[in-house]
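Duplicate of earlier report; UDP-N-acetyl-D-glucosamine 6-dehydrogenase input re-posted below.
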Amino acid sequence: MSDSLEILRQLRQKIQSRSAKVGVVGLGYVGLPFAVEKAKVGFSVLGIERNNTRVTQVSQAKSYIADVSTEDLYQVITSGKLSATTNFEDVAKLDIIVICVPTPLTRNLTPDLTYVESVTEQVAKRLRPGQLITLESTTYPGTTDEVMCPILERISGLRQGEDFFLAHSPERVDPGNKRYTTKNTNKVVGASDPRSREISAFFYQQTIDSIVPVSSAKAAELVKVFENTFRAVNIALVNELAMLCDRMDLNVWEVLDAANTKPFGIMPFYPGPGVGGHCIPLDPHYLEWKAKEFNFETHFIALAGEINRRMPEFVREKAWRILNNLGVAPAKAKILVMGVAYKKDLDDCRESPAIAIISHLLKDHANLIYYDPYVADITIKDQTLYSVELTDEVIATADLVLIATDHTQIDYLDLVRKAKAVLDTRGVTRNLNCNSDKVTLL
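Output:
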């Protein structure tokens, strides 16, 4: 048996017996749930996180991610199956390293792989034969093969598929989703050599119900980018329809609800104040950037991004129209924004359209306050705002209540009854039996 086959056999045996030591780099919305899931089934997991506050919270079994219960975190911490550190010193002792670091965009909408490259270099300095490295961060097709592999091989002197194994398995985390979790969401796994593909799929099979192997790391990378591009394009389509319906004095929600009664050939998508989170506003632009390498223009992606980025400005314009009709000048308007998180029932404000809307309104010198049961404060250009207490007086004295995030714990019927005017960007009031004259839908 060749050395590489023996290395593969030994790693497979460790994974099967749960004696493999797993490292998770990045303990955020993807990394922490993954680390806890692996620790719960018996793997010894080391979380590596540069944010010292997060490391302290993990060590004290205090969850800061909604999808990870404090009880589950306490269980794996006290059992000794999960620990956390800020350094890479123990990487050589690990058998599997899963990388879940941010992959942001620059202001020019080009990929910023600083975190991926930095972590890869740290791993490469300590890489030994028999280790598996998987990248879960969303990125453009080619990152694993063209960026990570050369760094790993150059610094370590080892070879992928022979000495170590390298794969891409894009995260599919949907924060706040109670039905689909890390365990029961189909997991795509791809690698550019058969041994890496085999061992990475086997590793993920230990805790995830269904594995979907693909032929290469590039294919796996493109799967995730396409998933989010699909959503971005369809959201942009209904957002553009909302702006057209506004011009035509039609109710876009009525149109979409009726269209979605067709039992075939259509899929429900609804407009909103913009798109938020890490995925939809950012990921499609990775593909747009990569396509230029092949002299190919991705027109749908560019147009979808343009339309979705325009929505906060459209909401601002609609807010001022409502106030003008009420005879309230922008500089004297008191506006209550309901929700600043990018998605309901979360505390996550990443790329939140509500923040963009508030920024626009503050530039117009509006007297603006906000309420969010999950977000205590936000900072916009050195100005910190704090969530107010949602009292009858706060609602009644606002010239306009702007629903930017549709948190489910809010009594929207009561809100509409007490408000002077409501701009609903999420359609959450459209089926309420309330005074519709007060409500303007997006």
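The domain at 3-215 is CATH 3.40.50.720 (Rossmann fold).

Merging into the original ticket.
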